[in-house]
Amino acid sequence: IRFGGDEFILLLPNTSINNAKILANKIINRISEHNMIDEIKFFVSIGVAQYGEKDSNIDDIIVRADKSLYEAKRAGKNRVI
User: In whole angstroms, what is the distance from residue 67 CA to residue 22 CA?
Assistant: First the structure.
């Protein structure tokens, strides 16, 4: 789901946070493979969050994922947090 200009949301039901991070790293690795052959380079920052018992709606999860995303952006290119 496109969330913003350059932000997307990927919903992974029945997936642990660790498996979500594994998938996120696979996405980064796949993009990095294309960077080796293309003149135009792409970099990805990914924020990961999971449902918690205190979440009242999906917005609570999105807020945490967004915070993780911006932490990943500050940490450098091609990061998962």
Answer: 19
